[in-house]
């Protein structure tokens, strides 16, 4: 079995520079991940990120540096949507797949969601493959759902439903900040 290479935990003030480098200033990431571009570190308004309960840092275990983020949003009817982004320098190593798998586990077992959705700009085959490797399947297509970077974008949605045998660790409304699925202590 493959060893976990990542830590998923809360965003810290000290993550600002890594977030800038790997997300908000990485133009390759911003082609497919919706985020406001920052030209300089000073242009990045990072103040609202630390402490958010819906946003997690994806860190390399060996360095504890932020290489990406994963979040959940649009909670309704026992479901939610997730988004994820990994710095382009870390593409092709399976980090997104590992992070999404672990995040799905957290959302099902600790947050109690029944269904999790994710979308990608149609044509982003790398993101589609991540979703498929995590057990997600095609749900629906949405033509010209939004305008991003001056272009109308089609979105393809995938979904996964919680298996009946999944046991909720803390009940559907009592997720702890230090989730076993998303947080590892440094021991």
Task: Spell the H/E element sequence.
Answer: EHHEEEHEHEE
Kindly state the mean pLDDT as a whole number?
Answer: 89
Shape: globular
Count of alpha/pi helices: 4
- Summing up helix and strand content along with how strands pair, one would put the structural category as alpha+beta
Short summary:
This protein has helices at residues 16-24, 27-30, 95-109, 125-133; strands at residues 6-10, 55-60, 66-76, 79-86, 115-121, 137-148, 151-161. The protein has 187 residues and is α+β, with helices and mostly antiparallel strands.
Folded structure, characterized:
The chain contains four helices and seven strands. By secondary structure, the protein is an alpha+beta fold. The chain has one domain: 3-Layer(aba) Sandwich (Aminopeptidase), CATH 3.40.630.30. Strands 1-2-3-4-5-7-6 form a seven-stranded mixed sheet, with helices on both faces. Strand 3 and strand 4 form a beta hairpin. 30% of the residues are buried.
């Amino acid at each position: 079995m493959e060893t976990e290479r990542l830590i998923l935990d809360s965003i810290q003030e000290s993550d600002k520079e890594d977030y800038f480098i790997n997300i908000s200033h990485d133009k390759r990431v911003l082609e497919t991940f919706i985020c406001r571009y920052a030209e300089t570190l000073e242009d990045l308004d990072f103040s609202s990120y630390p402490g958010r309960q819906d946003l997690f840092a994806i860190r390399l275990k060996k360095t504890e540096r932020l290489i990406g983020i994963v979040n959940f949003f649009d909670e309704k009817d026992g479901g939610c949507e997730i988004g994820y982004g990994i710095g382009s320098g870390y593409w092709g190593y399976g980090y997104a797949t590992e992070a999404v798998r672990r995040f799905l586990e957290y959302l099902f077992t600790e947050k109690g969601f029944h269904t999790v959705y994710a979308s990608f700009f149609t044509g982003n085959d790398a993101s589609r493959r991540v979703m498929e490797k995590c057990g997600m399947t095609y749900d629906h297509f949405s033509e010209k759902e939004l305008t991003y970077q001056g272009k109308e974008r089609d979105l393809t949605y995938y979904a996964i439903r919680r298996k009946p045998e999944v046991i909720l660790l803390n009940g559907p409304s009592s997720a702890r900040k230090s989730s076993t699925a998303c947080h590892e202590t440094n021991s």
